[in-house]
C-alpha cells in the first residue's frame, strides 16, 4: 500500500513511548486517515527511565515526565481504557469499557508491566511496592521522603540496582537481595556483576547475593515488617520494592490467533505480526517491549527488547510500515541501553546473551572506568562501558559490522594484554 492510498482508520494500542513515536511516524510517512491511540493508563505518554532515577530522589516530579509530541497527531485519545481483545476477522479492537474500535491498520505497542510478588496476599501488604508506572514512582517517592527504617529491594537487575542507588543517595539504609551470585549476572555475567556489586557495597548498600526472599511477614495490621530468607535469616524492613523483572502485556491477544505468549508477540523481519501458523498479518505491526522479532545481527534469533532507544527506533520503523512505506531492509538497529547508579553511567550496545568470552578493551575495573567487549563464536556481539562512553560508538560499529572478536587493538588507554575471560553467566 502506498502512502497516497492511506487506509481510513489506524488504531495504536499502547500509549507509551513506542505507541506515541509509532503514531508520529505514521503521520510523517503520509498517513492522513483517522488515528486513535488506546492506553490502559489515564495519562498522555510519559518517559519511564526517570521514574527509577530522578523521580525517586525528588529531583523530578512524577507528573513532570510527559513526553513531548514531535508532530501534530490530530488523533483521538482513548486513555484509561485497556484493550481486552482483538477480533481480526472483523478487524476490531475490544476495550474494557465495552466498546470496540474498527481498524484498517493496527500498531500493537502494549509494552510490559512489573512482575508482581508471587504471593498475592503478601504483595498487597502496605509497604510493598513495584516500580513501573507514574503512580508507582510517586508512591515510592512519598514513602522514601517520609523516612524509612530500612528499604529492602528484591531483585538485582537494572531497576533493583537503580532503586538501591536512589536509597543510598537519600541516606536511607537499603538491602538488596538477589538469588544469583552477583547483581546483573544474567545481563553482564558474574565477572562484571562482581564489579557492580562492589560499587554498591562501597556506597553503603547491603548486598545479599546468592539467596532469595521466601516470604514477607506482616505486623498483624497489614503492613510488611520483615522478609524471611531461604535457608534462614531475615531482613527487618518497612518498605519492600519487588524488582523481579517485567511481564509482557499480551493476554488481551489470547483469542486473536496471533503468535503471542508471555514472551511477546511474534513478528516477521519487516515488523508485521505473525499468526499462530507463522503467517504475516499485513494489517498489523508491533513495536517496543511487546514485539518479539528476528534480529539480523544475532542470526535471526527472536528477541524482545526492553530498551528506550529500541522502542523509538522500532516504533518509527513500524509506523512507516503501516503507512505503506515498506522498508528496504529488515529492522536491524543495534540494541542500546543505559543506567545511572551512584552517579556512574553504565551504557551498553548489543546483546550479551550467549557470549562465550569478554575482554576489558579500554580502561580498568580497578579504576572504576572501563569498557568491556563481549564475543560469541569469534565475533563481537556487545559492549559495555562504565564511565567510559566516549569509546562506545567505535565498538557499536564493530558489533554492527559483526567484526571479529577480540576487536580493536592498539587503541589508546587499552590494556597491554586483551585477555579473554569467561563472562560467568548463571
From TrEMBL:
The keyword Metal-binding does not apply. One of its GO terms (cellular component) is cytoplasm. InterPro entries: FAD-oxidoreductase/Apoptosis, FAD/NAD-bd_sf, FAD/NAD-binding_dom, FAD/NAD-linked_Rdtase_dimer_sf, Reductase_C. Keywords: FAD, Flavoprotein, Oxidoreductase. The keyword Oxidoreductase applies. PANTHER family: APOPTOSIS-INDUCING FACTOR 1, RIESKE DOMAIN-CONTAINING PROTEIN-RELATED. This is FAD-dependent oxidoreductase. It comes from Methylobacterium soli.
Amino acid at each position: 500500500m502506498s502512502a497516497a492510498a492511506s487506509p481510513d482508520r489506524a488504531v495504536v494500542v499502547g500509549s507509551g513511548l513506542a505507541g506515541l513515536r509509532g503514531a508520529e511516524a505514521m503521520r510523517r510517512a503520509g498517513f492522513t486517515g483517522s488515528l486513535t491511540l488506546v492506553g490502559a493508563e489515564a495519562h498522555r505518554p510519559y518517559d519511564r527511565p526517570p521514574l527509577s532515577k530522578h523521580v525517586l530522589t525528588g529531583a523530578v516530579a512524577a507528573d513532570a515526565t510527559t513526553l513531548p509530541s514531535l508532530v501534530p497527531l490530530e488523533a483521538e485519545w482513548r486513555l484509561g481504557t485497556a484493550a481486552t481483545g482483538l477480533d481480526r476477522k472483523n478487524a476490531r479492537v475490544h476495550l474494557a469499557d465495552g466498546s470496540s474500535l474498527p481498524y484498517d491498520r493496527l500498531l500493537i505497542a502494549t509494552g510490559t508491566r512489573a512482575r508482581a510478588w508471587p504471593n498475592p496476599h503478601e504483595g498487597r501488604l502496605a509497604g510493598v511496592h513495584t516500580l513501573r508506572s507514574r503512580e508507582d514512582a510517586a508512591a515510592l517517592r512519598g514513602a522514601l521522603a517520609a523516612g524509612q527504617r530500612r528499604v529492602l529491594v528484591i531483585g538485582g537487575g537494572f531497576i533493583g540496582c537503580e532503586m538501591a542507588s536512589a536509597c543510598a543517595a537519600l541516606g536511607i539504609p537499603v538491602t538488596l537481595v538477589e538469588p544469583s551470585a552477583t547483581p546483573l549476572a544474567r545481563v553482564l555475567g558474574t565477572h562484571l556483576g562482581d564489579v557492580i556489586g562492589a560499587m554498591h557495597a562501597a556506597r553503603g548498600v547491603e548486598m545479599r547475593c546468592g539467596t532469595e526472599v521466601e516470604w514477607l511477614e506482616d505486623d498483624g495490621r497489614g503492613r510488611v515488617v520483615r522478609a524471611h530468607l531461604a535457608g534462614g535469616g531475615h531482613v527487618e524492613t518497612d518498605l519492600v520494592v519487588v524488582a523481579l523483572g517485567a511481564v509482557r502485556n499480551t493476554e488481551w491477544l489470547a483469542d486473536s490467533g496471533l503468535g503471542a505468549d508471555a514472551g511477546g508477540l511474534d513478528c516477521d523481519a519487516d515488523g508485521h505480526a505473525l499468526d499462530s501458523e507463522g503467517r504475516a498479518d499485513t494489517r498489523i505491526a508491533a513495536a517496543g517491549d511487546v514485539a518479539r522479532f528476528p534480529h539480523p545481527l544475532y542470526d535471526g534469533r527472536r528477541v524482545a527488547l526492553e530498551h528506550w532507544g529500541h522502542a523509538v527506533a522500532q516504533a518509527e520503523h513500524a509506523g512507516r510500515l503501516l503507512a505503506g512505506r515498506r522498508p528496504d531492509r529488515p529492522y536491524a538497529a543495534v540494541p542500546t541501553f543505559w543506567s545511572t547508579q551512584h552517579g556512574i553511567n553504565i551504557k551498553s550496545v548489543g546483546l550479551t546473551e550467549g557470549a562465550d568470552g569478554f575482554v576489558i578493551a579500554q580502561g580498568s575495573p580497578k579504576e572504576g572506568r572501563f569498557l568491556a567487549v563481549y564475543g560469541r563464536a569469534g565475533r563481537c556481539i556487545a559492549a559495555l562501558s562504565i564511565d567510559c562512553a566516549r569509546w562506545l560508538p567505535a565498538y557499536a560499529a564493530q558489533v554492527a559490522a559483526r567484526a571479529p572478536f577480540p576487536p580493536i587493538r592498539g587503541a589508546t588507554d587499552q590494556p597491554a594484554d586483551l585477555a579473554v575471560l569467561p563472562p560467568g553467566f548463571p
